[in-house]
Design a protein that fits this description.
There is one protein chain. By secondary structure, this protein is of the alpha/beta class. Helix content is 39%, strand content 17%. The strands form five sheets. The protein has a seven-stranded mixed beta sheet, sandwiched between helices. Strands 9-8-7-10-11-19 form a six-stranded mixed beta sheet, sandwiched between helices. Strands 5-6-20 form a three-stranded antiparallel beta sheet. The longest helix is centred in the N-terminal third of the chain and has 22 residues. The radius of gyration is 24 Å and the shape is globular. The termini are far apart. The structure holds 1,4-dihydronicotinamide adenine dinucleotide and magnesium ion.
């Protein structure tokens, strides 16, 4: 077993993730050492490990990186432009960190406007040459399908990269992020042959007696800039690349500066799949330089962005120069509502824990506002706090890790600042509330109650494992309170009363409503935000609207 995930480890993680996504949030894995897990590890000891009560403690061994990944990491990392791997024009690079240790694992190009110019020119050449959009739809679909296959063939390796770079448990990446990314390409491959226009009977009142044949074509938009975040690096790349390719566009993608590695590996697989050079260009760099240049570029026809609402607004402004099309998937402060008629309280408690703690709370749709009917409030809050206390923190590469570090020092400081602000404003911390350990970017899974609507922690997206619990007594006031946020990404409802669930689902201003489940995603399900959570829907057939434009053609007969 070289660098992969052992079958029993995978099975346990699958069980954990499936149950975590649906109803339960249990961690059935037994502790194993890094040595008996993969047989490769460095001798150096690490101060990061877990004692199973939401704290990291000293003394365990540093989990190993597989020799294959070490080998891949040791090779110079370049941008993918026009089918070739090239350094930044400036030859500048920046450090990529392992957030579990705050250690440098690679250096990637620190690209700027000039690199973006070259990548956009390459994408433009590929688009105008027709090397992609004029392939038969069937041929395009097969190549996109092949990307999905290659992701599955390299699933262990990609899961390891994702875990090392982002901090998430490798086993979770292996059963969630990687298969979901592959599935997205497989799903979108099928759409390549199904992008159809319509024939339209027209009447033309000022041309009596004239005959016309009128129809629509759905054409690619052209050169698309895609700016993606760090919370699900490979999966977010897939969400954006899959539909862009299925519809015949050419792409310049900028991964997040915190997690550029899986996008670079994906670029290698995309070339291996046989996608023509220049169709997908990948440029690493910072938001303020490479990202801003891409969003403002006059020869980019559309920009698709996932990240903070603050930067989403900057993208809109930057796009105004040439009025490029814009789609945005932004922040959230999603209510997760538990009624006293939920039936199985343990299931609801597990579901509420999963809703906030999955991916360390670094989910735009995290159920970060837990609204519980007053009669069961104490029991639910205690239950979620018990789950929080049991979560094992540790490096993503350790087999027994259940929650890794936050992605960066910046996020550590952002989340701990929110924790601090909440305490200062008088909220009660049932559990957690601070950094965990003194190395890496770990924080304690945290449950907060006794809050007021005006508090910052109640209004703003924290993007960490911090849930704000509030009781409600009057169901008639509930919807207004749940909707009392500038965001509208997701919501959860837990009840056995199915008509109440349907009624409330229609009243919630959210792009996704989960009833008696949470965090259920599928390539076929559209995902996106109401209000300031974004513009447009990703996934499903709805996303195809974002990557095509309609041309009406009229023939006089
Ligand atoms: P961010 O919005 O700055 O970063 C997301 C992407 O945008 C990255 O690729 C970044 O390089 C790029 N970017 C940043 N500034 C840009 C600019 N001026 N022009 C073009 N591209 C730019 O998010 P950040 O700073 O990493 O995280 C801050 C907060 O954003 C988080 O605490 C969280 O609340 C939210 N966030 C939401 C995500 C989501 O899935 N909706 C994902 C990541 C962050
Ligand atoms: Mg930023």
């Amino acid at each position: 077993m070289k660098g992969g995930v052992r079958p029993d480890e995978k099975e346990k993680a699958l069980h954990q993730t499936v149950s975590l996504l649906k109803v339960r949030f249990t961690y059935p894995m037994k502790t194993r050492t890094a040595r008996n897990r993969i047989g490769h590890r460095t001798a150096k000891s690490s101060r990061i490990s877990s004692n199973g009560n939401g704290r990291v403690q000293a003394k365990t061994q540093k989990p190993g990186v597989s020799p294959q990944l070490r080998d891949w990491l040791s090779k110079p990392k370049h941008n993918l432009i026009g089918g070739k791997w090239v350094p930044a024009v400036s030859h500048k690079t920046f450090d990529v960190f392992n957030p579990a240790e705050a250690s440098v694992i690679a250096r990637v190009p620190d690209s700027d406007k000039e690199d973006i110019n070259r990548a956009v020119a390459a994408a433009r050449r590929a688009f105008e040459s027709g090397s992609w959009r004029r392939l038969t739809a069937s041929e395009r679909g097969k190549l996109i399908w092949r990307i999905g296959d290659l992701i599955l063939e390299h699933a262990n390796e990609l899961a390891e990269i994702e875990s090392l770079d982002n901090g998430k448990p490798r086993a979770v990446a292996r059963v969630a992020d990687i298969p979901l990314a592959a599935d997205l390409f497989h799903y979108m491959a099928g759409w390549a042959t199904k992008i159809e226009g319509t024939t339209i009977p027209i009447s033309v009142p000022y041309a009596p007696g004239a005959l016309f044949h009128a129809f629509t074509l759905r054409e690619p938009i052209g050169v698309v800039g895609q700016i993606i975040p760090w919370n699900f690096p490979l999966l977010m790349a897939a969400w954006k690349l899959g539909p862009a390719l299925a519809t015949g566009n050419c792409v310049v993608m900028k991964p997040a500066e915190q997690t550029p590695l899986s996008a670079l590996r994906l670029g290698e697989l995309i070339l291996e799949a046989g996608i023509p050079g220049g169709v997908v260009n990948i440029v690493t760099g910072f938001g303020e330089t490479a990202g801003a240049a891409l969003a403002a570029h006059p020869d980019v026809d559309k920009v698709a962005f996932t990240g903070s609402t603050e930067v989403g607004k900057l993208i809109v402004k930057a796009a105004a120069g040439n009025l490029k099309k814009v789609s945005l998937e932004l922040g959230g402060k999603s209510p997760n509502i538990v009624f006293k008629d939920v039936g199985d309280l343990d299931t609801a408690i597990a579901g509420a824990s999963n809703a906030i703690f999955f991916n360390h709370g670094q989910c735009c749709c995290a159920g970060s506002r837990l609204m519980v009917e007053r009669d069961i409030f104490d029991e639910v809050v205690e239950g979620v706090a018990e789950h929080a206390k049991k979560i094992k923190l540790g490096p993503g590469l350790s087999a027994d890790t259940q929650m890794g570090p936050l992605v960066s020092e910046e996020q550590l400081s952002r989340v701990t600042n929110y924790m601090h602000q909440g305490k200062q404003s008088g909220a009660c911390y049932v559990t957690g509330g601070s950094r965990a350990g003194d190395r890496g970017y770990f924080v304690q899974p945290t449950v907060v109650k006794d809050v007021k609507p005006a508090m910052t922690i109640v209004r703003e997206e924290i993007f960490g494992p911090v849930v704000i619990a509030e009781p409600f007594s009057k169901p008639e006031e509930l919807v207004a309170r749940a909707n009392q946020t500038e965001y509208g990404l997701a919501a959860g409802i837990w009840t056995r009363d199915i008509s109440k669930a349907h009624r409330i689902a229609t009243e919630l201003k959210a792009g996704t409503v989960w009833i008696n489940c949470y965090n259920v995603f599928d390539a076929a399900l559209p995902f996106g935000g109401y209000k300031q959570s974004g513009w447009g829907r990703e996934m499903g057939h709805e996303v195809l609207e974002l990557y095509t434009q309609t041309k009406a053609v009229v023939i006089g007969l």
